[in-house]
Design goal:
Chains A, B: Its EC number is 5.4.99.12. Chains A, B: This is tRNA pseudouridine synthase A. The structure is a homodimer. Chain A is of the alpha+beta class. The first copy, chain A, has five helices and ten strands. In chain A, strands 1, 2, 3, 4, 5, 6, 7, 8, 9 and 10 form a ten-stranded mixed β-sheet that branches.
Chain lengths: ~260, ~260
Amino acid sequence: MLTRYKMTMAYDGHLFHGFQLQPDQRTVQGTVEDALKKMTKGKRVIVQGSGRTDAGVHAIGQVIHFDYPGKTIPANRMILAMNSMMPMDIIFNKCQIVDEDFHARYSIKGKWYRYRVSLDHFVNPFKRFYTGHFPYQLNISKMQEAARDLLGKHDFTSFAASGGQIEDKVRTIYYVNIEKDEKENEVIFDFIGSGFLYNMVRIMVAALLEIGNGRRPIHDLKRVISAKDRQEVRQTAQASGLYLYHVFYEDIPQKYRQDQHL
Amino acid sequence: MLTRYKMTMAYDGHLFHGFQLQPDQRTVQGTVEDALKKMTKGKRVIVQGSGRTDAGVHAIGQVIHFDYPGKTIPANRMILAMNSMMPMDIIFNKCQIVDEDFHARYSIKGKWYRYRVSLDHFVNPFKRFYTGHFPYQLNISKMQEAARDLLGKHDFTSFAASGGQIEDKVRTIYYVNIEKDEKENEVIFDFIGSGFLYNMVRIMVAALLEIGNGRRPIHDLKRVISAKDRQEVRQTAQASGLYLYHVFYEDIPQKYRQDQHL
C-alpha cells in the first residue's frame, strides 16, 4: 500500500549542491530520501520536487511529494518524524495526505520567486549567503516601470541560460513587484509566473539592475524579449539572493494577475 | 613610528572560534592579525579588542585598536586595504587614526549587547546561526516588568558563568529594552551596561525567558541578584542569538540612562 504525501519545506541553500539528487554531493532531495530510507528500513522512496533549485538557492515554500510504502502515518506524525531526521538547514512546515492525482511538478499552476539585493556599500557578513549585492547607483522607479514589459505571455529565450533542456520557451509572467526595504537597505523583487526557465529569474534581475543603474534604456526589455537571444543579457544575478517563495496548485489569485490589467 | 588605528567591525560569528587568538583555531583576532602581518611584510601587530566574544557570538559594532608600524596610511585607505584582505564574514565599517591614550578595552564607558530569540515553532533554517530559539508560551510584558529589576548597580555573581577570572562582579545596567518584532516573529533584548561578566547577557536572557514562560515569579531577579549564587540560574541562552551591538567610548546618552529614573 502506498500513501502519497505532499509536504511544504524551507531550506537554506548555501550548504547544498542544489535540490536534485547527485552522487557524492549533499543535495536536498538526497537528504530527504535518506531520511525516508531510514523510516522504511531500507526501501528507496523517490522524492519529487516542484522543480530544481540550483546550488546556493533557497526555498521558503518548496513543495515535494512522495509515495510512502507500508502503513499510513497520519500527516501530523509524518511531519514530526521527518523534521526530527532533518539537518538544521531543512524544515518541513506543512504535510498533507493527497490523492494520487496530485503531482508536485505536473499539478503546478504557477510559481513565485523572490530575489533579495543588498545595497550595502560593502558585503554585509550576515547577508553574504542570503542576498545578491549591488553597491551602485540604482533608480527603483525605473526598474518598476521596466518590469511591466515582462508581464504577459512571451517567448523568454533571451532570459534562459544555455544548459536548460526545455524546447518551449514561452511562459506567462502574472505579477512583478519591486520594492525597497528601507530598514534592511535591500531591494526585493517578486515574480509570479506560469513557470520559469533555467536561471530566468536571475537573468531578469540582472537586466533590471542594469536598467536601474542607467546602463540600459528603460524599455529595453521589450527589445530583448523580441531578440530571442541570450547574448542580449550576459549577466546572471548571484544564486545567494534567490528564494523559491511559493508554489501555486490552485488558480493564481486575482490580486496577482497584473497581466490581465495591461 | 607607530600609528594607532581604531576600527569598528561587524562579523558573523558562526564560523569563528570566538574573537580571541587561539593556536590552530579560526578566530577573529587571528584573522585580522594575519592580514596586518601581510601588510607589514611579516611584523606581528597585536590587535586589541573591546573584549572577547565567544564562539558563535556575532558583532555589529566590535571595536579594535592596533599600532601600525612604518609609514602612516590614511584612515580611508586603511579600511579599504583591510577589507580587501578580510574573509566574507568580517567587515570593517569605520576607521580612525587615534591618540595613543585611546585603548579599545580600557577606554570603554559602556557596552550594548543585543539578543535575538526566534519564536518559530520549528527552528527556522535561515535563523539557526543568528537567533536563539524559544518555541514556548511567552508573556512579553512580564519580561519587561522583570527586566527593571536588573537596572542599576548590582553584584551580578549569580549571572556570571564560572570560568571568568574577574574578581569584582559589580556592574551597572543602564538600559534594558525587550520588544517583539512581529514581522520576524522574534523577541529582541537590548542591554546597555558599564560592562558584562562572562556569559552574563546569555544568563540574564535565560532567566527572563523563564519569567516570561511563568516558571519563575515576576520579581524573582531581585532574589537571584541578592543570592549571589550562579546555581540560581542554571540555563544559558544559546550563543547564536547574541550580538555585540555597540561600544561606548563617550558618556552613555541620557536616553539610555533608565537607571537614573528608577
